[in-house]
Each structure stands twice: as C-alpha cells, then as structure tokens.
Design brief:
With 278 residues, the protein is of the alpha/beta class. Helices cover 37% and strands 21% of the residues. Bound molecules: NADP nicotinamide-adenine-dinucleotide phosphate.
Length: 278
C-alpha cells in the first residue's frame, strides 16, 4: 500500500486530501493520503524519516516550502528558479523536491483558453511565493515580457533582478496604465479572497481579447473575474491551478497520471460552499 500526505503548520484547511482521495478512489488504488501537522522545529526529522514512516512522498504547504527546498534534491530548473518546494517524493532512497504551482497555473490557463506564451505580455499583481512560481513557469514557456506590480515595490524589484530583463517591476498604482499592452492579467495576491480587502482596479484599458486570471479560489468568482466577464475578457479562476498542481505529485507517488475532471472540480466547489451562509 502506497502512502502520501500533506505537511504544514497549521494544516487543518488543506483541500489536498479531498483531491488525492478522489483520485485514489477513481483509479481504485490501495493507498492513502493524509494531513500531517508538522511544526517548523520538527520538519527536518520528519523529512529524514519520510520513507521509514512508509510515505512515498508529500505535499508541502505554508510555512515549510522554502525550508524544504533547502533539504531535498532539486533537479528541475523551474523549481530551482522558484526556490520553494510543494511536492516531495522518494526514489531509490533519495528525497527529491519539485514546485508544481506554476505548472498548475499554466495547465489551468491552457485548459481554459487557447493561450500560447510566445510574444505575449503579462501583467502580474503581487510578488509573493505564488507570483514567483508563475513567473519562473511563464519564462520557461517563452513569455516575451512580464510587468510585475506590487504594493511593496522592493519585493517586485528583487524578483525582476533575479529573473532578468523579461521581468519589469512597476508600482501598483501604475497598473491601469499598462493594461492596454497586457495579453494576460493575473492576480496573485490574496486581495479579493473571502475575509480580505477587495482588489480595486478598473479594467477599462484592457483589450477585450485579453485574458484575466485570479489565483484566489474562494470565492470562485472574484470581483476581478466578474469585472473581466463584463468586459468580455476570457477568465480563469484559481481552482484550476489548485487541481492541476496536484497532478505531478499523485503520479510520482501512485504511478498513474490523474485527470482533472468536472466531477473533481464539482467536489471541491461543493466543499468550498459547505460552510457558507445561504
Ligand atoms: P505571499 O507570498 O504571502 O504573497 C502575498 C502577496 O499579496 C504579496 O505580493 C503581497 O504584497 C500581496 N498583498 C497581500 N495583502 C495585500 C494588500 N492588502 N494590498 C496589496 N497587496 C497585498 O502569498 P502567496 O503564497 O504568493 O499566495 C498569494 C495568494 O494566492 C493567497 O491568497 C493564496 O491562497 C493564493 N494561492 C492560490 C493557489 C492556487 O492553487 N490557486 C496557489 C498558491 C497561492 P506585499 O509584498 O506588499 O506584502
């Protein structure tokens, strides 16, 4: 029996068990996927004993992604550029790490639109961990230019310096001035998420054939996406990224590349709506 888990601190709200549990059942695999609360002080020993505990690997969430990056073998160029790991797998006694967040974003974008990165310009709001994963992935995919807007300009400048001349840091206040040259607008901040302030932006300057993606998935349709739909833009919600980022890990641990289906999406949507007032 193969086993995997998700580690974090706290871990209560992770939806990974729901996703992997769905696939285990669908593909009739005798295996398990569980939540493990791991305190930062216990992280190193947890990783060292992963295989002894019977795990084929694990997902990694807040606050461990950067720490795990420094403790595992990273062979993938995109993951090295991101500097954080969300997927760990054991192979021939060695522990490897991958970051699949950017992969998940791009897979979701390509599933929902006809997106090709070549010769395209992207505007990204936010310069945190998720933005870093998306930037590294879009660069690998051949993007022409990325404008990076962040409340704390210094953080955007650090990323621009790290990723080179494709990425240009800009103050958040200037975003609307760049929309007329934007093929894809992505919100990677927590703005617009339930319990967080809204993302206040006018899409008036955005061409109607551009795409708008929000990586926030609660609510599923953020105000940004509502506005984009009203502007006739194609939209991509954050749930697709969450589902697709789980695919490579499941394949490594359980040996089958799983499919992201409407049935799985509906299951997670129902879970998101579960505790909401009518
Ligand atoms: P992070 O590293 O903490 O970065 C947060 C970003 O949001 C920073 O750029 C921060 O700006 C900005 N921000 C936060 N509050 C803000 C405010 N009030 N005004 C302006 N900017 C604000 O977080 P992360 O890991 O990148 O995650 C960001 C969001 O993406 C979260 O909501 C997370 O749930 C979501 N996410 C979704 C998926 C998915 O699969 N769909 C995957 C990963 C993350 P400063 O630098 O100025 O602080």
């Amino acid at each position: 029996m193969r086993k995997a888990c998700v580690i974090g601190w706290p871990i209560k709200h992770s939806r990974s068990p729901l996703i992997h549990g769905f696939w285990l059942k669908k593909y009739a695999i005798t295996g398990s996927y569980e939540k493990r609360a791991v305190e930062p002080g216990d992280l190193e020993s947890f990783l060292e004993t992963l295989e002894i505990k019977g795990f084929s690997g694990c997902n990694v969430t807040i606050p461990h992604k950067e720490m795990v990056f420094n403790k595992v073998i990273v062979t993938d160029e995109v993951t090295r550029g991101i500097g954080a790991v969300n997927t760990v797998f054991v192979s021939e006694g060695k522990t490897y790490g991958l970051n699949t967040d950017g992969y998940g974003f791009l897979a979701s974008l390509k599933e929902s639109t006809t997106w090709q990165s070549e010769n395209k310009t992207v505007s990204i709001i936010g310069a945190g961990g998720a933005a870093r994963a998306i930037i590294a992935t879009l660069i690998k995919d051949g993007i022409k230019a990325i404008y990076l807007f962040n409340r704390t300009m210094a953080k955007a400048q650090i990323l621009a310096k790290e990723f080179g001349s494709v990425v240009k840091a800009k103050p958040l206040e200037k975003l609307e001035e760049f929309l007329d040259q934007t093929d894809l607008l992505i919100n990677t901040t927590s703005l617009g998420m339930v319990g967080q302030p809204p993302l206040e932006i006018s899409l008036q300057n955005l061409p109607s054939d551009s795409c708008v993606a929000d990586i926030v998935y609660d609510p599923l349709e953020t105000n940004l996406l509502k506005q984009a739909k009203a502007n006739a833009n194609r939209t991509v919600d954050g749930l697709g990224m969450l589902l697709h980022q789980a695919v490579p890990g499941f394949e490594k641990w359980f040996g089958i590349r799983p499919e992201v289906t409407k049935e799985l999406r509906d299951l997670v949507v129902a879970d998101l709506l579960k505790d909401k007032p009518e």
